[in-house]
Amino acid sequence: MDLTTTKIGAATVVAAVGRIDSITAKPLEEKLLGVIQEGPPALVVDFTGVDYISSAGLRVLLVAAKKSKAAQCKFALCSLQPAVREVFEISGFGTIIAIHADRAGALAAAD
Amino acid sequence: MLSLRNDPAEIARLAVLVAEFGVRHRLPASVVLHVNLALDEAISNIIAHAHDDPGAHDIAVRIALADGALSAELSDDGREFDPRAAPPPDLDASLDERRIGGLGIHLVRRLMDEVHYRREGGRNHLSFAKRIG
Q1: Is the N end or the C end of chain A the one with fewer CB atoms within 10 Å?
Q2: Considering just the CA atoms, what is the radius of gyration of chain B in Å?
Q3: Whether B17 contacts chain A with CB within 8 A
Q4: Which residues are registered as beta bridge partners of B129?
Q5: Is the ipTM of this complex over 0.90?
Q6: Does pTM surpass 0.90?
């Protein structure tokens, strides 16, 4: 799992690349909670490079979404691959986490 | 029959073997992906919850193609646990009300066409299958 953090306007974008499973969920959680603690108005996780996510990864995103809300940070995901999108849909995450088709859409909503 | 250690690193190793099995038998990528995800969830649960001691335990895995389905059988010596009896997560809960956890078993049940469990010889035997096409 590779994580790259970029600041674009008001938003902090974390681009993830690789598998998100019970091993790689930990560095992802540390990264996202670290960003939220810095207090950005918006946090976008770019899933372009993610081809696999298990419930360990879903758990981290749910924790990050809850903490973001408490910190008044707009939390969103973008660019989900079809296989990952399917897991999100089965898990009912589409209704509790903002999901955008691409990064531009996520950044526009973050402004 | 494959023997895995109760170590999360074994899951990615197994995923590669299942993917190779899929290529060899020309299985649809989605079938292989779903079975791998179900295996990941079931094995992660065993590693996290099945044993009270921190010692090494074997998890036996068998992958098979039969009756137009890709099936997987898991056996472990942990405490008795029937995943079919676990309560489903509340998918309609709001973000604040949504509880953390319980999604792994939900994914197994939703992604697989069949899930079977039995307790035999002091071991859990979990099997599941995904139809091809």
Answers
A1: C
A2: 15
A3: no
A4: B71, B114
A5: yes
A6: yes
